Amino acid sequence: MLDIFTKMSLLKQNDERMRAVIKSGRLVMPYYSVRGQEAIPSAISALLKPTDFICTIYRGTHDSLAKGCPVDKLWAELAGRVTGTCKGKGGPMHITHPESGVMITTGIVGSTMPIANGLAWGSKMKGNDAVTIAYFGDGASNIGAFHESLNLASLWKLPVIFVCVNNGYAEHTKTENCTAIDEIARRADSYSMPGVRVNGNDPLELYAVAQEAIERARTGGGPTLIEAMTFRFFGHVFGDDDKYMDPGEKAEHEKNDPYPKYRNWLLDNGHAVEGELVAIEAAHAKEIEAALKFALDSPFPETSEIRHDVYAYEVIE
Amino acid sequence: MTEMMNMVKAVNLALYDAMEADDTVVVLGEDVADKEGGGVCGITAGLSAKFGAARVKSTPISEQAIVGAAIGAAMIGFKPVAEIMLMNFCTVASDMIVNHAAKLRFMSGGQTSVPIVIRTMTGAGVSNGGQHSDYLEQWFAHTAGLKVVIPSTPADAYGLMLSAINDPDPVIFIETLPALFTPGPAPERHKMIPIGKANVVRTGRDVTVIAYGRIVQGIAGLAEKLKGEVDIELIDLRSVSPLDLDTVLASVAKTGAAVVVHEAVKAFGPGGEISSAIHERLFSKLRGPVIRIGAKFAPVPFSKPLETASLPSLDEVEKAVRSFARATPGMAPLTAGVSD
């Protein structure tokens, strides 16, 4: 339980620091804030092994960090530095760190799922028990790749878990205005796989649902669709105004902020004492400051990097 | 007597030999397993019987899911050969091909790679109409990170396929549908043909003809027919990307004239890139502008006379190469490089 909190603390503070640094002008990039969605990857990753895989999307720094991507390398990548996870060549929308199982971050809505299937298929062919998590948003459930992928995963009984992070909006359009089904989890019925809607702000409920899905996948029982209900507190891309939301809508959701809620629950139920949690938070604050410094102190890649990693060999023009 | 084999059998043999040599080679696509016929033209016939259903997987008609599955498996050590039945269907999978397969190595800073082969058939001339006939190699050649191979003979198809499967990067492997059943000399087993190295099919002194795919055979016949009138050096690129400019430029430096021929649409086609590269480097050595010959700027028509008229013809090639014939004793001098 404290393990989940520890991850949530890192993800929340990391997001806060990132927004502050972008606001100050020290880093310039498109940033898709994850604030409000921390419980989902924290609870799921607490169940994963380093050898399990995740595929995530542009709003995915929390997924990568929760899976174990190093904070300093993540910041350096976001700063476009050569010390970043991808030598600065990927950036915020393409964080990759196979050592911790972060196999792709994609900027294309819906594209985690076909590739997650491939990782799961490969694991199955190897005969190991690795599972793959495909994260995506509610908007992605209206893309063809979602339907193709769920169909194939079910047919081939792949060890993959489709995690739909339903934050109520596809870009600026409310889910109900662009999605013909009221519960995305029910789309699993069309593909003969279990589908579960879960409170995405409740780490314990998430943990229980994910545990069952992961166990099923590990033991050859095939895929699951999990729809985790949550809210993004800082719009689609950081800097959005909230004009497309109903007045008071965001304030209402902020009452369900998973972070203080879970923190208080741990304290109220005697799972932790204040000093313990403060110490965890302070350690993360320090780690993030060090990561920021590491990133800003690191050099940019040489321009010759353009010629490398296009192919296995260097491109000569 | 030379053993003969068509391209269907040659590619099938390459897949067979690669799968036998390496357990990580797997095949997926619509109808590829024997139960579904071993591929619409039989190119994957017998593979599932020999190597098992786990390594030869028929899929739903889901092009994004097919290429995505290939990409993911490739990232963790497999060498998938995915069939996208026809090249026009690659458009349905282009997010997976262009945004992912091509770019993951670069965007991950070299941490991941996508050693897949996408086998796909295409080609006008068999009345398949506007959505089953296009050559789209220029789209993929324009995308950094992809390689694009188009064999012209069964033997080349075999050797290039072995190389494609063992290539560390994604390869689009184009099989020309109208030439699939044309026999040619059988390949030498287990011999790979390197990707990115053009084949000088015949040497000549008057004009360099640069081509690839099915049309190479026709041009070879034309060169033979014109022997004594125009001395043609014929280069089969074998791959559009990487483009073997060294071989092309060395040849054109010698002949001083070039004609580029492809079945893809001429406008914005590979001929533009090749022609431009020649002009940039050899302008002062050219006896006339490079001539490009390609398909008409129109969707491929169904009606036979229209379909034929939309394709590049050997008559066009003959006219072009004749314009570069060097004056020889007893022959009237010709105006070089003039072409409409």
Give an account of the 3D structure:
The complex is a heterodimer of chains A (317) and B (340). Chain A has 317 residues and is an alpha/beta fold. Chain A contains ten helices and eight strands. Chain A has helices at 2-23, 39-45, 61-67, 71-78, 112-126, 144-155, 203-218, 249-254, 258-268, 274-297, and strands spanning 53-57, 102-106, 132-137, 160-166, 169-170, 173-174, 195-199, 224-229. In chain A, strand 7, helix 7 (203-218) and strand 8 form a beta-alpha-beta unit. Chain A starts with a helix and ends in a 20-residue tail after the last helix. Chain B has 340 residues and is an alpha/beta fold. In chain B, 33% of the residues lie in helices and 19% in strands. Chain B has helices at 7-21, 47-51, 63-75, 94-101, 104-107, 137-141, 154-165, 215-225, 245-255, 270-282, 304-310, 314-322; strands spanning 4-5, 25-29, 56-58, 79-86, 117-122, 147-149, 171-176, 184-185, 199-202, 207-211, 232-236, 239-241, 258-265, 291-295. Chain B has a seven-stranded mixed beta sheet with strand order 3-2-4-5-7-6-12, with helices on both faces. In chain B, helix 1 runs parallel beside helix 7 and helix 3 packs parallel to helix 4. Chain A binds chain B through residues 53, 84-90, 94, 96-98, 103-104, 106-108, 111, 113-123, 125-126, 132, 144-145, 148-149, 151-152, 155-156, 308-312, 315, and chain B through 26, 54-55, 57, 59-60, 62-65, 67-78, 80, 95-96, 99-100, 104-113, 144-145, 147, 168-169.
